[in-house]
Design brief:
The complex is a heterodimer.
Chain A lengths: L6 H16 L2 H29 E2 L2 E2 L2 H7 L4 H32 L5 H13 L2 H12 L5 H10 L9 H25 L3 H9 L4 H12 L1 H17 L2 H7 L7 H10 L5 H27 L23 H27 L9 H5 L4 H8 L3 H31 L6 H9 L6 H14 L8 H26 L2 H9 L4 H28 L6 H4 L7 H10 L3 H26 L8
Antiparallel strand pairs in A: 1-2
Chain B lengths: L5 H5 L1 H20 L19 H10 L3 H15 L1 E6 L3 H14 L3 E6 L2 H13 L7 E5 H9 L9 H4 L6 E2 L2 E14 L24 E4 L3 H13 L4 H12 L3 E3 L2 H10 L4 E6 H9 L4 E2 L7 E10 L6 H12 L1 H8 L3 E2 L13 E3 L2 H20 L8
Parallel strand pairs in B: 1-2, 1-3, 6-7, 6-8, 10-12
Antiparallel strand pairs in B: 3-10, 4-5, 5-8, 5-9, 5-10, 5-11
Helix pairs in contact in B: 4-13, 6-7, 7-15, 9-15
GO cellular component, one term (chain A): plasma membrane
Protein name (chain A): Iron ABC transporter permease
Keywords (chain A): Cell inner membrane, Cell membrane, Membrane, Transmembrane, Transmembrane helix, Transport
Chain lengths: 575, 382
């Protein structure tokens, strides 16, 4: 056996070398991130797929029959698409226009923008929708009362598909706004300037130069918006049902309400969404992949400079004030007004006389309020930060690396978007009830749930930004001897920061509203704000709920302002 | 067009392997554990009675002070009670505070909608995780829990005072939610207010009546009642169809109550009386009295877990809720399961939800109710 002995150290050396090559920070980071994304996505997906295709007797397609076999399915798909596409288009137009005006022009009232773009996102869906009922119901709507002398009774009707599109579209527009702000921030204005110099009109520039350059962001926005609207629950439930307008989510709600929950049918509906989403992600990558076309952050130095609107400045200012009143002041006033009353009633001297701060006092009497606020803050900040850090690397894998199977990372990160919150909750409790690590019953299971739910948004924000950054910046850093990690940290992260910050803010804000999986997974002591909202809602304390809504808007608005102030210090700077 | 960074190409092969092994690991993780959803849940106990059950059996035979004296020291030694409930938080807060004041036991409260409470317990029990000692929720969910075999037998003098409909295998009613029509008093005069359930089918309410999307238990009970009173299926179906004609469909009883106060509709077919009562107490222009009879009552009950970690505390809480707790529930505007002394509802005909039928054929009734309300044609504007 002596002949074998020299071979051992040799092989050991080879293994060590291999390990050393494998053990670079770059590789470790990539593997860990891809693994985490895969793990977060596959747990609920596996649960959903298994529940959809298998029952006690083996493989089945019964769920599909139950989900799509409803005689009204035709009308339902029609309504769903009309609603989802309508809301997506509205939010896209509004969000993009606002983002453009804000970042690229010298429009007045810029201060109003962040309020206008963030507040609809903060107000819980149920409050926002009910506020709109009080504003635009044909029977009791305040706006209708206001214009009745001119247009006759019931001019606005919020209980129609158009009404649903309106409310959902406005509620979703902040997501687009945040995405597009990031995209416009990273755009080299010299392209627009050259077009202007060559004699193009402003509108032509916007249509032929600006929009094509931000196409990856637009595609991402459309994708997220359509899926979100297809899944939206509050608006169809409160506005659609009243007149018998059924959409997909009404079905998912029905099949999950029974016991045992019809996971197969819910899964079948979700699989429908999943197919749609996978196609969408593929298209979005195809669009983004055309390489340099969208890379606006290049090695050439540039300072984004706002464009002068000239005589359009006052007009645009008017539009913004109008929009601000419609999406923020209107609903927020209704909330504020309601929060001061004992019960909702149309404004009258009587109503104003009965006003008090009782609801706010009651709010502070809720024993868990402080714990809930603390937990929500911790979870919001934690999940937003974790997701954006993970997705920054994830986006690099998808956009920059040449690793085969990188598209899979993108697809996986998108999966949670189509998984109903309750199913996610069930899947997580299933896994962690059996895990030897004591995560069930602690706040960490909520953190995992939130990271899973918001991963798709984080990925869209990060990928979109990554598409805009030219690879030549990284290459020059590496040529100058920087390691991958140095390049990533010192070059890419700062350049990505507008997009990452936008995603961070989005996740922070919406995590305060997450209910469908939180309610199943929380445990005593780990209450979050959305659960308090749900409880006040169940108690029938709508006025207290309105007060809570007002407090949430104030808290988050302050946080967001701080984030932006800090964010303005890194990344691309405006003149 | 090739913008591949050098680094990507350089480390392509190990990275590829690493990524592949990463996904393999993930698949492996996800793959173990067998079917998460298909398997039917089972009772957590293998064969014989659990320790908790032995205590229950022993105490079930005791009465009065002797029973209390047996339970209190044991419960205080356990020190904690894990309670899962769908009681609204305003009520739950009062109840728990009173219990904690009276006994040296800390209550850990998990509160959610009844469907969620059920889901959570079933998930936990399947995984042999003892999350709760006692559950207080809606009848339907308690029936389901009982058929999962996780609830223990509870007996005692207080249980025997509960009406028949509230004494079920595995659980005991603690309170009733009453379904009754309610109306906006600014829009409906006392003369116009509905006097019978049949009145709701009157065409004068077209476009002014609201129905709730998940009240199929109300529907099936009223259906059964009418059937018993000699109406034919056709007659009953016509009544419901006329109700639904032009009806505004709302999700959630709370929203329904809010919108009724605001005048979005004039009459609500089946709201809980306590929601309307709360609004009325705050001065909202709503009423539900005199009751349209029969009032339909949905029991809420309490059940002991077979696998309780704190069985004495669980049992003490159950006893207490059926005794001292009943008066507290009344103070919160709820209808208690045990009526002692003067009964404000003694002249009112009350019928309980047909829970047995609901559990057996609930799916079928859901579908039928779904059908009924979706035929509520759209009414333009008003």
């Amino acid at each position: 056996m002596t002949t074998a002995s020299p071979a051992v150290p040799a092989r050991k050396g080879a293994t060590l070398g291999w390990l050393r090559r494998l053990g670079t920070p770059k590789l470790i980071i990539i593997v860990v991130v891809a693994g985490v994304i895969g793990y977060l996505a596959l747990v609920p997906l596996y649960y959903l797929i298994w529940g959809t295709f298998f029952d006690a007797n083996g493989f089945t397609l019964g769920g599909f029959a139950r989900a799509y076999g409803d005689p009204r399915v035709g009308g339902m798909i029609g309504n769903s698409l009309w609603f989802a596409v309508g809301a997506a288009v509205l939010s896209l137009v509004v969000g993009t226009a606002l983002a453009y005006l804000n970042v690229r022009t010298d429009v007045p009232f810029k201060g109003l923008f962040f309020a206008a773009s963030i507040i609809p996102l903060i107000i819980p869906g149920i409050l926002y929708t009910i506020a709109w009922i009080f504003l635009a119901s044909p029977d009791i709507g305040l706006l209708n009362k206001l214009i009745e002398p001119v247009f006759g009774p019931g001019f606005f009707d919020v209980f129609t598909v158009w009404g649903m599109v309106w409310v959902e579209g406005l509620h979703l527009s902040p997501i687009v706004f945040l995405l597009m702000v990031a995209a416009f921030r990273s755009m080299d204005p010299s392209l627009e300037e050259s077009a202007l110099m060559s004699g193009a009109s402003r509108w032509q520039v916007f249509r032929r130069v600006t929009v094509p350059l931000t196409r990856p962001a637009i595609v991402a926005a459309v994708l997220v918006m359509v899926v979100r609207s297809l899944e939206s629950f509050e608006v169809p439930a409160l506005l659609g049902l009243q007149n018998g307008i059924y959409v997909f989510t009404s079905r998912i709600y029905f099949v999950l309400r029974t016991y045992p929950p019809d996971l197969a049918a819910a899964g079948a509906l979700a699989v429908g969404l999943l197919v749609f989403a996978v196609i969408g992600v593929a298209i979005s990558n195809l669009v983004g992949r055309s390489g340099k076309t969208y890379q606006t952050v290049t090695g050439k130095g540039f300072r984004p400079r706002p464009m002068e609107l000239g005589k359009w400045r006052p007009v645009m200012g008017g539009v913004i004030v109008l929009y601000f009143f419609l999406t923020v002041v209107g609903p927020l006033l209704v909330l504020l007004y309601t929060s001061l009353l004992k019960f909702y009633q149309a404004p009258s001297t009587e109503a104003f006389a009965s006003m008090s701060l009782d609801n706010y006092r009651q709010l502070f009497d809720i024993s868990d309020a402080m714990t809930a606020l603390k937990n929500s803050l911790a979870l919001g900040l934690g999940s937003a930060t974790l997701v954006m850090v993970l997705m920054a690397v994830g986006a690099w894998i998808v956009v920059r690396s040449r690793i085969p199977g990188r598209q899979l990372v993108d697809h996986l990160s998108f999966v949670p978007l189509v998984i109903p919150g309750l199913v996610l909750g069930l899947a997580l409790s299933f896994v962690y009830l059996r895990s030897p690590i004591p995560i069930y019953g602690t706040i960490f299971i909520l953190l995992i749930a939130y990271c899973t739910r918001y991963m798709p948004y984080g990925m869209r924000y990060a990928v979109t930004s990554m598409h805009q950054i030219s690879a030549e910046l990284e290459e020059s850093a590496q040529v100058s001897g920087a390691s991958w990690w140095q390049t990533f940290r010192r070059v890419l992260l700062p350049l990505l920061s507008p997009g990452l910050l936008a995603g961070w803010i989005y996740i922070l804000v919406v995590s305060f509203r997450e209910l469908s999986s939180s309610i199943l997974l929380y445990s005593p002591g780990n209450e979050v704000l959305s659960i308090l909202i749900f409880e006040q809602y169940e108690n029938g304390q709508f006025t207290v709920l309105a007060a809570l809504g007002v407090v949430m808007v104030l808290t988050l608005a302050v946080l967001v302002i701080i984030a932006y102030k800090l964010g303005a210090k890194v990344g691309l700077r405006q003149d | 067009m090739n913008t591949a960074p050098l680094s990507g190409r350089r480390s392509g092969s190990p990275a590829k392997r690493a990524l592949a092994s990463g996904s393999a690991l993930v698949l492996l993780l996800a793959g173990c554990g067998g079917s998460p959803t298909a398997a039917a849940p089972q009772a957590t106990t293998g064969g014989g009675p659990t320790a908790a059950e032995k205590l229950y059996t022993e105490v079930n035979g005791m009465t009065g002070q002797q029973r209390r004296d047996k339970l209190v020291p044991l419960a205080e030694k356990e020190g904690t009670l894990d309670l899962y409930t769908s009681m609204t938080s305003d009520v739950a807060d009062v109840v728990i505070k009173a219990f904690e004041d009276q006994f040296n036991v800390t209550v850990n409260l998990y509160r959610a909608g009844s469907e969620t409470v059920l889901q959570r317990i079933v998930q936990e029990q399947k995984a042999h995780y003892q999350g709760n000692d006692v559950v207080e929720t809606n009848a339907t969910e308690l029936f389901d829990l009982n058929s999962e075999g996780v609830l223990a037998t509870y007996d005692g003098e207080r249980r025997r005072m509960v009406p028949d409909a509230g004494r079920q295998q595995g659980w005991t009613a603690t309170r009733f939610n009453l379904f009754a029509p309610s109306w906006n008093t600014k829009l409906v005069t006392p003369d116009q207010a509905p006097k019978t359930w049949e009145d709701l089918a009157d065409p004068k309410w077209d476009g002014k009546l609201a129905m709730e999307i998940s009240d199929s238990d109300w529907y099936l009970t009223l259906y059964g009642y009418w059937k018993k009173k000699g109406k034919t299926d056709d007659e009953i179906n016509k009544l419901f169809a006329d109700m639904a004609k032009g009806a505004k469909i709302v999700k959630g009883h709370t929203v329904q109550g809010q919108l009724l106060s605001a005048g979005q509709f004039s009459v609500v077919a089946s709201n809980y009386s306590y929601i309307v009562e709360q609004a009325k107490a705050k001065g909202a222009p709503v009423d539900y009295q005199p009751y349209v009879e029969p009032v339909i009552a949905r029991p809420n009950g309490i059940g002991l877990m077979k696998a309780a970690k704190h069985p004495a505390a669980a049992m003490l809480f159950t006893d207490w809720l059926l005794q001292e707790g009943q008066a507290l529930l009344v103070k919160q505007g709820l209808t208690p399961a045990i009526v002692e002394g003067d009964d404000p509802l003694k002249d009112v005909e009350i019928i309980p939800i047909d829970v047995e039928e609901l559990t057996k054929n609930g799916e079928e009734w859901n579908k039928r109710y779904d059908q009924v309300i979706s035929n509520g044609e759209q009414v333009d504007g008003n």
